[in-house]
Design brief:
single chain, about 210 residues, alpha+beta, Glutaredoxin, four-stranded mixed β-sheet, 10 helices, about 10% strand
């Protein structure tokens, strides 16, 4: 019997994607679904502005966000150190796609998250991602050829498809065409998986004319 599919968009530099990771994998066991992991590489300056233009209000929000994510991390026994700079996660994102095709996705995925948030990995350095690939049993030369070949076009196509669905941040889960953004929406996602009729009811209420 085919298991229902939940598509998960993630980015290794997102603190909330990091702390949602464990619970998302648990859905495979508890809800009997299959997870389809795809990168949604956040363009930080596009939605957060450049460092020079950020206001004191913005920095208060950022400090709270990292403090809040760290609470979730601590509850799971995870180490989460604040990022040292703004990262372009392209290499780590296409590394995810490469690892899936070559059968070592989970090892790669967990290693990149753990090492990045432990300040042991620079995700925007090709050599660093190659090291992770080889440590997981993959071919560094094959990955480099992929990066210099079709990786960029495939990566950008995935981002475009995500945004056409309405994705704007991570983690975003997509189930039966419905989007759930953030780890705090996992309970709602579980409800949809277990009671899919609630989707029809919710959508129906949006379009019902007032009496």
């Amino acid at each position: 019997m085919t298991r229902p599919i939940v598509r998960v968009y993630t980015d290794y530099k997102s603190p909330y994607a990091f702390v949602a990771n464990k619970r998302l994998f648990e859905l495979e066991e508890t809800c009997g679904v299959e997870l389809e992991w795809l990168p949604y590489t956040l363009r930080v300056a596009e939605f957060m502005g450049t460092v020079e233009t950020r206001t004191p209000h913005f920095w208060r929000k950022v400090r709270y966000a990292y403090m809040d994510a760290r609470r979730y991390a601590n509850a799971q026994g995870l180490v989460m150190k604040g990022p040292r700079r703004i990262y372009d996660a392209f290499y780590s994102s296409v590394g995810m796609l490469f690892a899936q095709r070559h059968g070592f996705f989970r090892s790669y995925h967990d290693t990149v998250f753990r090492k990045f948030w432990g300040h042991e990995l620079e995700i925007d350095e090709l050599a660093a991602i190659i090291d992770v690939i080889t440590s997981c049993g993959g071919s560094g030369s094959a990955f480099e050829a992929y990066v210099n070949g079709p990786a960029r076009a495939e990566h950008d196509r995935i981002i475009d498809e995500a945004e056409a669905l309405g994705v704007f941040g991570v983690p975003t889960m997509v189930f039966n065409g419905e989007l759930f953004w953030g780890g705090d929406r996992i309970d709602m996602l579980i409800e949809r998986i277990e009671r899919p009729e609630t989707v029809a009811a919710a959508l129906g209420s949006r379009h019902r004319k007032p009496a």
